[in-house]
């Protein structure tokens, strides 16, 4: 049994799945900076361990290939599990079958291992796609989810699997429904295709940025460091079983976003119109009241500051 003295000297250990991914590399570095030991799982299908600049106990495996025994070994001695790894929405080459295999089946085995190893808290990175809403009303945690994609279904299933493991193992958990996270080291080929990365890349090459359709489709952007702060507050919160939006509460149109990017880059390039796609007419944002009231969290980085940091990192 851990004594009070042990608790004071205990170095906390985090297990981060998707540790070499965009959000994962930033989370890993923040955890190490805060004094945590970090164990990371990533198979580099969309991640890149080269993005992680701090010491990590690496597990170079795919979650769906790990046996229950291997998952329990990975979870042994862990205080908090941050489950970020997933087959992402609209990533080229992904199938519905693989999305189910990773985001539901492998996630169920991971959560069961976490419960069996008595991990104190699981923080699950869910998604706005669990709602299924295309706007214009902001998405609120009390809304009835009606996902429209296999990815959204899989993320909602992951949320419900936490309740199953709470019942079977008494495990504590919290859920972050992430909106459009952006920031440095967001590779265009990894995770969500990012209009920010794509168009900043085009501007750097002297090519005109592309705006699909009329550009009025609007998205709720959150800078990655704000996202990390939200995940950490969910890990530290004494509130069990809460689901919160990691959102700014503001939707910005792609047209306005691109104009701001051109200005930050000091470019004279004019955007060109690309074909309209399924996002036409959508406005996707999330309410922020619950995160503010329950966690004292809000997205504090302005879009201008965040975009400038992305441009500077890409230019460097």
Short description:
The protein contains ten helices and 14 strands. The protein is an alpha/beta fold.
Secondary-structure map:
Elements: H1 4-9, E1 13-17, H2 22-33, E2 37-41, E3 57-59, H3 68-75, E4 80-83, H4 96-116, E5 121-127, H5 150-169, E6 172-178, E7 180-182, H6 195-204, E8 210-212, E9 218-219, E10 221-223, H7 224-236, E11 242-246, E12 252-253, H8 254-264, E13 272-274, E14 283-284, H9 289-295, H10 303-315
Parallel strand pairs: 1-2, 1-4, 2-3, 4-5, 5-6, 6-11, 7-10, 8-13, 9-14
Antiparallel strand pairs: 9-12
Helix pairs in contact: 2-7, 3-4, 4-5, 6-8, 6-10
The CATH topology label of the largest domain is Rossmann fold
Estimate what percentage of residues fall within beta strands: 15-25%
Radius of gyration: 19 Å
Q: What structural category arises from helix and sheet content? A: alpha/beta
Share in helix: 25-40%
Q: Spell out the CATH superfamily of the largest domain.
A: NAD(P)-binding Rossmann-like Domain
Number of helices: 10
User: What does the main sheet amount to?
Assistant: 7 strands, parallel
Number of strands: 14
The termini sit apart by 50 Å
Low-confidence stretches: none
- The CATH architecture of the largest domain can be named as 3-Layer(aba) Sandwich
How would you spell out the order of helices and strands?
HEHEEHEHEHEEHEEEHEEHEEHH
Task: Provide tags for this entry.
17% strand; Rossmann fold; 316 residues; UDP-galactose 4-epimerase, domain 1; 14 strands; 38% helix; 7-stranded parallel beta sheet; alpha/beta
Written description of the protein model:
With 316 residues, this protein is an alpha/beta fold. It has two domains: 11-180 and 223-246, NAD(P)-binding Rossmann-like Domain (Rossmann fold), CATH 3.40.50; 187-220 and 250-285 and 301-315, Alpha-Beta Complex (UDP-galactose 4-epimerase, domain 1), CATH 3.90.25. It is built from ten helices and 14 strands. It has helices spanning 4-9, 22-33, 68-75, 96-116, 150-169, 195-204, 224-236, 254-264, 289-295, 303-315, and strands at 13-17, 37-41, 57-59, 80-83, 121-127, 172-178, 180-182, 210-212, 218-219, 221-223, 242-246, 252-253, 272-274, 283-284. Helix 5 links the parallel strand 5 and strand 6. The longest helix has 21 residues, at 96-116.
